[in-house]
Amino acid sequence: xxxxxxxxxxxxxxxxxxxxxxxxxxxxxxxxxxxxxxxxxxxxxxxxxxxxxxxxxxxxxxxxxxxxxxxxxxxxxxxxxxxxxxxxxxxxxxxxxxxxxxxxxxxxxxxxxxxxxxxxxxxxxxxxxxxxxxxxxxxxxxxxxxxxxxxxxxxxxxxxxxxxxxxxxxxxxxxxxxxxxxxxxxxxxxxxxxxxxxxxxxxxxxxxxxxxxxxxxxxxxxxxxxxxxxxxxxxxxxxxxxxxxxxxxxxxxxxxxxxxxxxxxxxxxxxxxxxxxxxxxxxxxxxxxxxxxxxxxxxxxxxxxxxxxxxxxxxxxxxxxxxxxxxxxxxxxxxxxxxxxxxxxxxxxxxxxxxxxxxxxxxxxxxxxxxxxxxxxxxxxxxxxxxxxxxxxxxxxxxxxxxxxxxxxxxxxxxxxxxxxxxxxxxxxxxxxxxxxxxxxxxxxxxxxxxxxxxxxxxxxxxxxxxxxxxxxxxxxxxxxxxxxxxxxxxxxxxxxxxxxxxxxxxxxxxxxxxxxxxxxxxxxxxxxxxxxxxxxxxxxxxxxxxxxxxxxxxxxxxxxxxxxxxxxxxxxxxxxxxxxxxxxxxxxxxxxxxxxxxxxxxxxxxxxxxxxxxxx
Length: 617
Hints:
The longest helix has 18 residues, at 471-488. By secondary structure, the protein is α/β, with parallel strands linked by helices. Strand 15 (530-535), helix 25 and strand 16 form a beta-alpha-beta unit. Helix 19 (367-383) packs across helix 20. A seven-stranded mixed β-sheet has the order 13-14-12-15-16-11-17, covered by helices on one side. A six-stranded parallel β-sheet has the order 3-2-6-7-1-8. Strands 4-5 form a two-stranded parallel sheet.
C-alpha cells in the first residue's frame, strides 16, 4: 500500500471510543473540548495521529492533551518535548501550556532543540565549544563562487542556497545530489559543474572557518546520537514523550532526528493536515503523516473536522478544492459549537453569526484596476466598522506586494506588508524596547499602562493617531502596537515582567497586532486568520505559478490556495486580472477557479469601476 493510500485509509478509520462522561466532568482541562478533541487529549500513551483540518482547534487539542497528561500524573513535564517549525508557533505553544499549568514542558522548533543538544554535547564528544552557526548563507556563498571562479548574481546565489538546504534535509550526500542534478536542473544560467563547484567551495569555507549552517545543526546532532551511545542514552532519558505539530511539514532530516530521539519508544503524538503541505520545495513531505498508521498499526487515529473558524460558504469552497485528494479531510462549519468552544476558552474564535455572504469572484481589466478595486473594497469595510487588522490581501509572490501597498495607501488604508522588515527590527521599536527596559529597572508603583505610556509619550506616541499616511503614521503604529500589548498582559503583571515579555517576543519574533491591513504571501499566511481575506492574482502563471510544470507541483499550488481560503472567517473575495500590462500580457483565469464554482450575484456599487470589472457566476 502506498503512503497516500495508507493516509486515505487512516482518514476513514473510526475514531477511538469516546471517554466516559465522568472523566469529562471531573477534569476542567477536558470540559471545553469537543468529542474528537477529547479523544486526542485522553490518548496519552503510545502512538497517536491527529488528522486536523484547518480551523479545527488542533493547537487547543494538543496543548490540553499535554496539560492533562501533566495534571493526571501520566507525564513528567520536564520529560515532554513539543516540537514545531517556527519560533512564533513554539512561543504560542509555550504561552498556552503555561496558562494551562504545564509551563515546564519544553516547546521548541526542531532546530532550537537540536542546537541546544549540540551545544551541550559537542564539548563532551568533540572538545571545545560548538562551531558558530551561520545567520545566512549569502556572504559565504559569494566567497565560495569567487573561490570556484564562477561569476554569479545574487538571485542565483539564493537559488544555490536553496539547493544546499534541499540536499541536506533530503539526507543526500554530494555524490547522490550530483546524480539527481540533471532532473532538477542547475540554478540560473549555471552549468552543472559550476553549480557543484560553488557548493563544494561553500562546504570547504565552512570547515575552514569552523562554522555550521542550520541544516548542519540537524545532521550533526543526529550524528552524535547515532554514533555515541552515551549521548543517545542521555537524550532518551531526558525526553520520554514527544508531540509534533504541523507534522505534514516534516523533512527526512527532521524525521531521522525524531526517530533517534525516540529510540525504541513509541510515545509520540503527531498532528497535521496533508492538505496544508506547502513546503515540499524545501524538503517537507506529507508521506510521514499519511503513512503513520502503516508504521504504527495500533496507533490511535483521531480526525478533527469541525471547523470553528470559517462560515459554511467558505468551508464549502475549500472542500470543493480538495475533493478526492489523498488525506483530505471533509470540514464541517460548526457555528454553535464554535460559540461554545469560545466560551470555554478556545483559541479558535467563534464563527460569526448567521447571514455570512457567499465568497465572491471578481474579474478585472488589469492588475492596477484589481489593486485599486481591492483597496476600495477594504476602505469601505473599514468605514463600515471593520478593524483594519481583521482584513488581509493574500498574494502569491512578494513581487506583487508593491502595487497593493501603493493602492491601499492611496485609498487612505493603513497597510503592513508581512515578511518585509520584522516588527522588532524597526528602529523605533528597538528604541522603545531599549527605553522601556531601562525604565523598568527603576521601581514603579503605578498602573502598568501608566508606566508604559509615559515612556512611549517621551518617544512621540500619542493616544490619537496622526493624520494621513507615511513615515510619521508608520512610527505611531509601531509604538501604538506596543502600548496595546498592555491590554493583553495578565492581571498583576509588573512593569519589569512586561519588559521581560517584550524581550521574549523579540527573540521569538512574536509580533504584536498592528492596526493595519495585512498584505502577505500565501506561504507567510499559514497559521494566521482574518475576518475577511482577499486572494488576488488568481490567473494562470501566478496561481498556479508559471514554473509549476508537473502534476506534483500543480498539487502544491492547489494546497497553497487551500491554505489561503481557510484563513478567512466571515468574508472571502477572489479576483484576477485579464491583463498584466504591456501589449502581449493577456492572462487566463486560474484553472482552480473552475473547480471552486463560486457563484456571486451581480451587485450594484461594486468596489471598483464597473467598467473595468466583471463579477463571475
